[in-house]
Amino acid sequence: MTRAGLAALWSHWRRNPLQLFTLVAGLALATALWSGVQALNAQARASYDAAAAVLGEGRHDQLVPRAGDSIPQDTYLTLRRAGWQVSPVLEGRLQAGQTRVRLVGIDPLTAPGGVGPMTRSDQATLPAFLSEGVVFAHPGAAAALADTVAQRVIADPGLAADTAITDIGVAQRLLGRDDLSRLILAETQPMGRPDLDTLAPDLIRRASQQGSDIAQLTDSFHLNLTAFGLLSFAVGIFIVHGAIGLAFEQRRAMIRTLRTLGLSLRRLMLLMGLELALIALLAGGIGVALGYVLAASLLPDVAATLEGLYGAQVAGGLQLDPVWWGSGLGIALTGAALAGAGAFWKIARMPVLATGARAWAVTAGRRRGWQGGAALGLLALAGLGTLLGGGLVAGFASLACLLLGAALALPLVLDRLLALGEERARGVRTQWFLADTRQQLPGLSLALMALLLAMAANIGVSTMVSSFRMTFTGFLDQRLFADLYVAAEDRAQGAALEDFVQDRAEAVLPIQWVDTRIAGQPAEIYGTRVAPAYAENWRFIAQEGADSAVWDRVAAGAAAIVNEQLARRADLWPGDPLPLAPGRTLPIAGVMGDYGNPIGQVIIGEGLFQRLFPDAAPERFGVVTDDSGALRAALEGDFGLAPGQITDQAALKDFSLQVFERTFTVTAALNVLTLAVAGFAILMSLLTLAAMRVPQLAPAWALGLTRASLGRLELLRAVVLAALTLLVALPLGLALAWMLLAVINVEAFGWRLPMFLFPGDYAALGGFALLAALLAALWPAWRLARTPPSELLKVFANEA
Amino acid sequence: MLLEVENLSKSYPGPEGPVPVLRGVDLQLRAGETLALRGESGSGKSTLLHLAGGLDRADGGRITIDGRQVTGLDDAGRAALRRGTVGIVFQQFNLIPSLTVGANIAFQARLAGRHDVAGAARLAEALGLTAQLRKYPEQLSGGQQQRVAIARTLAARPALVLADEPTGNLDEATATVVLDQMLALVAETGAALMMVTHSPDLAGRLGRQVNLRQGRLA
Q1: Whole-complex ipTM
Q2: A349 interfaces chain B, CB cutoff of 8 Å
């Protein structure tokens, strides 16, 4: 009985392969986009975890400096003598060929178990690690490092990209330092040891749950990707929902017959569930494979984005994790269950004697009431969430409510617009066309909702990116006002370089900074030689007094400037005291926009900087000059600077814009894919509906419309519906852009961007959308125009 | 006794309260017997047939088929009854459009676990469907589709065949041919037949006739 039942159910798909293709393709695309994004996120997180695992971060509490990033060796010795079970870590950057390697020094004798690569290596023993100074390095950095350092380098794939680990003594020698970066705390500590505040008041304890800075910093980026993945998944599920709904409508009579012939409802539901699960597994498998291809092709851009934005290293090779495969198949099953829940509910409630043929419009009409209510409710929630909610998750939830509410409202809006047109139409053909289009709405509404979401996402995201680009370009013009940027090889060359340029340029502006933590946030403190050019070029978003007054106070060491990120995250605004270093606080004089920078930044005067951080010395300089060509020639010819050490302003701007453009490559790719999925949804809906259209069009044909004109009207219908959808998508997309710029961006990155409008871009997008709809309708319309008259006549022949 | 209907009642909800369709119907049918159920539109003929076939639930009374009480069965029990004991032929044929004619004929027998390839082939031959076995229902005429529906029912060898105006959608000549074939095959399999019809001519060709009037047997 089960086999016979399954064979009957399966025969529907065999006779309607296009519908099966729609279902499988929709589910596979949804799964691909979702699992592709998940793979990217998982790969990046695996890289962060690998980086964190080296240091024992995430598993062990740590002692870190209250301010700055340096712990004197004596502090460590004091803690050890007092009984504290701590293990020292030194971290720094080492230039190895073209690669900047993150070098981590640990002490394997005091490190808690599991920290460092010794536990998994069979190529080096602990004595060798200590005595010979073995360096373990990620395979990507091992070769370059082997040419740079005297120590034996062992490639270790378990390490994060561009990371190397060695004994702390070796690390201190290689980095030229004698201090420490942090101390790892062992899980068990002796009783009765002195307080930390007494022994080392400059240190604070960071709990293990806090995770790594990189993981925290990049969370918002991954949340953005996840939101896009979810949007694409939702668009795909719209297709699946449409395909399952249509299949249900077409199989309604068959379901009744099967029950009439003795298949119980329970068994029928079971068989249909099994059938859907098999299809979902097939589609899920295809989707996961496609997702892998998608993730592999996007990974280089994502890795570049993460490095450009956050300095996070992500391994270039995608790992195939069984859990990821399982979750991909799981999401396909969940998606199919979500999309099919409505159809299954109807089957469960359908009496065995229900009428076989039932117009979709009838059920759609009943649905209209709750759909309108749900749309209003969701839009209200979106408004409330934006006004009252706080945090990134609340921001995304409001976005989801806005998009879903608008999608649900779309069929009702389109219906009203078409009804208005119908009332005002004069010609009988136009009237029939509009009435017939209204009748088509229920069948096409899911595809149109998908198109609305895709277009709105396109408008919203492109507005955000273009606004960002405009702001960023202006920002670069302000910031990069020096004509040349030169980099020395070391401190000594830096000092000589400054002397050399001093007499040959209008101004030399040393670029010097230290990495530190301020108000618990990772931050950089820059020591700036204040020149008139700063007051002329830089713009503040909040300040105390005139521009020149702010810079005068900074130059005098009486105030500091912070960037917007730090101001928003730590709630530090002009007038507030800023804790710079232990025992040193400065008032904030201004807040500057700092787009593209993920972490906090503080600008103080050069003199104060040198007093606070005497070990820091400038190795890079901005140079203001009238004749950059002559200066460049002098630097290369007379001073002996390599050409690679000199960058002119235009090249630096180009590079910054390249980083910017690459940052949004992933977003643009997902944008295009979402639009393509929506176009596919329209094509599949039209093709599936084509067979159901014959009974509706046959009377019009019989009354004198030619098959060719019916085909042309089908084309026109697709374009009209797409154009009306575009009308709704435009304000929705702009609302989306506003939320991205004013809510999501502030929460995710810490800066707010002004919003600009780009009517030309919207017109182009509209053109593309109409073209996509036209192309999608071309084949169904062509098929309709070629429907044999005998098929049209059957409609009348079957009338009882 | 194959079919026993006792004091059967059924109402449907209406805008002004329940509308009674059957008001205490009593009926009996022996194995191998043929019965025509006649009456005006709305007299309750189809309702009685649906209740006997386990397609709907009665409000009151009792139906027993082959010693098994139908009225107390749940959905699965009534499905088993339709699968194994009762075969139903509808006016609208109710073929499965995605299955070939051959697969449609074998379908109910396979559900009942009684599929007999040779028997199905004989039925197809007897009903003149041998040349159509690979076609799909949409490629057949109305008369051919009804013959497929009859073959499907009889291939499962039910003890009781219920037919709801099986020739209602056919022209007179085709209706006569189809009924002739159905009666011959029912007689051959030894099944009992209860057929709803408006036509006095068709009813006259069955062993017994009963009339339903306003929900009661006249």
Answers
A1: 0.76
A2: no
